[in-house]
Amino acid sequence: MLKFKENLPGYIFFGFALSAIAALFTIAMFIFREGIPVIIEYGFINFITGTTWAPTRGDFGILPMIVGSLSVAVGAAIIGVPFGVCCAIYMAEFAPEKMKKVLRPTIQLLAGIPSVVYGFWGLVFIVPFIRNNLGGNGFSLLAASVVLGIMILPTIISISEVSIIAQPKTYKEGALAMGLTRWQTICKVQLPAARSGIIAGIILGMGRAIGETMAVIMVLGSAAQIPKSLLDSARTLTINIGLEMSYAVGTHRQSLFATGVVLFVIIMILNILAQYFTRQRVKKV
After folding, report:
1. Spatial distance between the Cα atoms of 58 and 80, rounded to a whole number of angstroms
2. Could you tell me which of 62, 83, 110, 114 has the C-alpha nearest to residue 266?
3. Which H/E stretch holds residue 170?
4. For position 223, what pLDDT does the model report?
5. Number of other CB atoms surrounding residue 20 within 10 Å
6. Which residue of 26, 47, 122, 254 is most buried, as measured by CB atoms within 10 A?
């Protein structure tokens, strides 16, 4: 009896952990149950490579949405990664303690801002700037990339900083003792050693960008086309679901769940990659 009482908190926490797994499993089963029939009927290859999205005519090609999602994620990474990694280096190696006490809460606050606020900011400032200076109507891949690049900064900065700080001090001390400058030590020793953790942060940031809906729908537009330039409007998988789910019925509704299946698989792949690189970092340490 005494042993049971001692182990009771562990059983309780184990139950909470199982409930989280059960919730994920339930959501996945629901999405797959609703979406798989359309994929089977239409054909998986046709579904992911088709370029025409017209559910009322029986066309369920989501290639434009896949390209749109990947394009905004890559664009966000191109914008966000240099700023995020440089900020992480500054906080880990150069920032005094007083500055760290200001920067860390600021970054956490940046992560807590609702996505609709980012979208509104992009709609008011980024879209008109692109329209007036670069051409087009402003609703474009470039606008979405800028907004998402800022949104993923907290993820990249936090994980990259932790990865740099977690490196054994002997790496830095040995490099300095061999005559390397501080900057050479960072570039040639510390960053390569923290590479797997930084890559994991980048992948998680891209997953956040691919899964974003509200901010993107406000600045990207909703044209179901394969974009040919950064100034073209596009549509992501999340936008496709968000715009049409409210009125979709029958096969149209199931096709949106099928879109969710593809999105779910993409996010799972990115998370698996992030976990892999995180484990690589732990093994090195």
Report:
1. 39
2. 62
3. helix 169-177
4. 84
5. 9
6. 122
- How far is the C-alpha of 89 from the C-alpha of 194, rounded, in Å? 11
Where does 178-213 have alpha helices with state H? Answer: 182-185, 191-193, 195-211
- For residue 191, the model assigns a pLDDT of 87
Contact 152, 206 (CB under 8 A): yes
Q: Report d(CA 136, CA 235) in Å as an integer.
A: 16
- Give the mean pLDDT per block of 10 residues along the chain (285 residues): 69 82 88 90 88 86 92 93 92 87 87 90 93 89 94 92 86 82 85 87 90 90 86 91 87 91 90 78 53
Cα gap 56→33, rounded to integer Å: 22
Q: 139 — alpha (psi -120 to 50), left (phi > 0) or beta? A: beta
**Quick count: other Cβ atoms within 10 Å of Cβ 175?**
18
Phi, psi of 60 (to 5 degrees): -125, 45
Compute the chain's Rg from CA coordinates.
22
Rounded Cα distance between 269 and 117, Å, is 29
Find tokens 């994991």 and name the residue: 200
CATH fourth-level superfamily of 49-284: MetI-like (1.10.3720.10)
Element (DSSP H or E) covering residue 60: strand 59-60
Among candidates 87, 81, 86, 80, which has minimal Cα distance to 102? 87
Q: Which residues pair with 53 in a beta bridge?
A: 60
Cβ atoms 106, 100 nearer than 8 A: no
HSE on the CB side for 274, CA within 13 Å?
Answer: 20
Using DSSP's 3-state secondary structure scheme, residue 126 falls into: helix
Which element (helix H / strand E) includes 54? strand 53-54
Give the span between the Cα atoms of 123 and 143, in whole angstroms.
Answer: 9
